Amino acid sequence: MDLLTQIAGSVFSLGSVAAMLGASLLGVLIGALPGLNPVMAIALLLPLTYSMEPLIALGMVAGIYNGSMYGGAIPAILMRIPGTPAAIATTFDGFPMTQRGEAARALKIACWSSAIGGTASALALMTMGPLLARATLHFGPAEYFWIAMFGMASIGVLVGDDALKGLMAAVLGLLLGTVGLDNLSGIPRFTFGEPWLLGGLDLVVILVGLYALPPVIALAEQADLKGLSAAALKLGRARLGWAEIKGLIPTWLRSSFIGIGVGILPGAGGNIAAFLSYSAAKSASNDPDSFGKGNPQGVAAAECGNNADNAASMIPALALGIPGNVVAALVLGALLIHGLQPGPQLFHQNPALVGGFMAQMLVTSLLILLVGGAAATRVFAQVQRLPGVLMVPMILVLMAVGVYVINGRVVDLWLMFAAGLAGYVLEKLAFPLAPVVLGLILGPMAEQSVRRALLISRGEATELLTRPISAVIAVATLGLILWPILRAWQRRRQGATTI
Amino acid sequence: MKTLTLGAAALLLGATTAQAEYPERPIEITVPAPAGGGTDTSARMLATLLEGELGASIAILNAAGGGGSVGVTQFMQARNDGYSLLATWNSPITTVPQMQPTAYAPDSFVPVASTSQTAYTLCVAPGFPAETGEEFLAELAANPGRYTYGNDGIGGTMQLAAERIFQARGIETIAVPFGGAGETLQNFLGGHVDIYGGSISPVLPYAQSGEAKCLIVTSAAAVPALPQAAGLEELGLGDKETLLWRMVLAPAGTDQAIVDRLIAALETTVNSPEYTEFLAGVGEVPNVVTGPALGERLQGEFDALAEVAQSLGLAQ
Questions:
Q1: ipTM above 0.95, yes or no
Q2: A69 shares contact with chain B (CB less than 8 Å)
Q3: What's the rounded Cα separation, in Å, for the pair A36 and A404?
């Protein structure tokens, strides 16, 4: 009880509250601006706080991290431009809702979904952190291989109408994922002697180009000189009714669960969480064909999933000292600088600080409702009223700045524009882009894991299936592939009996 | 060491008048590793202390990829005016060029100062049939190809450090490269690989709690934090020492007066109580080698690792 009051006292101190509130606003802004991403913002800002109270620094991290995951949804819904890579899946149904004149409703659903996903994740971090962290240790290379295969199987749900084009897009993603130094043999692949290609194609650079540039070009094509009138924006008037909330609860539960699961496993990230949540919502729906055409469930699934990834991704870092992503690594770095030793004893070394940070992850998730609902949605959405002739160059500049800052390399700008043009052409040819992303992210994960697993099993392929967790995920993968076929067959049979 | 310090101090006295105005604008330090890693954290900590010492603000630029070679290659284009520095660990300079063609060599830079160092360690699960470094090597030698060890990258310094020991004793193990020490630790704790190979700091809490039994460190001397681990000297392998160490380098042609000013500032900050305390927390010790002596250290390590890379068939 003593500890709880101490944590509450430090989390709700003036400095901490100001840091959380300010950072949440900043996070929403960073998320909403295409190209700028939270990892970059945290890497730039955290060192400035080394001399401050640790909970001010950590409150800032929590606010930016949680705020930006929601912020990414704003341009995704309003303009089909994902503000962060994790908001890609939000564009699928968010933008069609905007086109139907339901932008306000979509934003409200995104806001609530983000807050709920983030809260669920923070609660998991606070209550089951060490337990979940120990569970992740059972996941070795063989299990990671099957997780990657499971993710890839969801391509089947995401391909759209033309399965062949979807597969071709997935193969393109897989091929792009092979570029760079092979981590297991040390041999460079498709690098053409260029040192900048040794590290592979930077995921964020490709995703920003591939997803954000085509809608910007589309905006330019409209040659819009006027912008929307305030009346056409129709913001702030949407209310979520109880019936609608009740309909979303199963999706929120499912997506929170998926997001937490993806979050605790090092290596995967918010974008995978959002994709898997989306495909799970679509598979579970009675009307899967309505997805991609403005189904609110799609927005809820993606936004809840990517926020549920956040706090959970801190679990292996805080409970084991193993950072699962760059933000977690930065947090550990900050704790080190404040004299704490990451590892299983971290919480006992300074429970007020570590517990305080966990509480901040919770508070900043709830702050999304305030910051996102009241302020951000109304303020940032006004950007949409700018005429295209102003908006297009502004977004392009922001994207270029954001991409350049990642590695400080001019060549990344060319890479972004190349990816953007490729995305534009692919869209015109009606190729779905989601499989490209999944191939690019999951391909290297699948390849490296299976090769490590085979090194460990001395080349015995059967060991990929004989371990209990691998076997379960393998069966689930098979199920995910067969599920749509089974349902289509079932529906056809039902159709036959009614006639 | 002491003479070096005195020499640098004497040089500094002569140099202060000539370069009184350096630094008069912000300094940019390239870190060829991602934000949040060991090299990045120690460079950022050093930068905050150096800012006070030099009276100029310092910006860190992370340029990760290619085992550090991407950032170092990028740094080759930096201007030699003293406002661009490189804070790196040894691997991108002495290990990576063995495997990949790089645009730089160990002598492509003006060596400023090394800052800190630590050994790598090899750890096993508590049930492993060995209690000492000697027993550990004997068990591995008696069972060729039976044990797997995780390392933090193919052809990385960690792998070469381990292979130098294994080759000297005719040991055959299966190397499983992971994406970094954190991933290796996760797979070791989960029992997916038999041996943890990596830096000391991530595994230290588990060695203390008894979940990991660390039996060898790759430094000649033993490491106090890991009392059960043997140093290479006591195993008769003292010449196989391979360390993880960090340094600050400047572009070729940087003015000697500026280099001397930096050496003096680094010597003060690295040995300051704040920095040594920080280093102790991550299992590192300060070790300042400056100027030409640092250049010799780089070249010597490069030559020793070239030999082992050659024999592993990893050399380009």
A1: no
A2: no
A3: 10
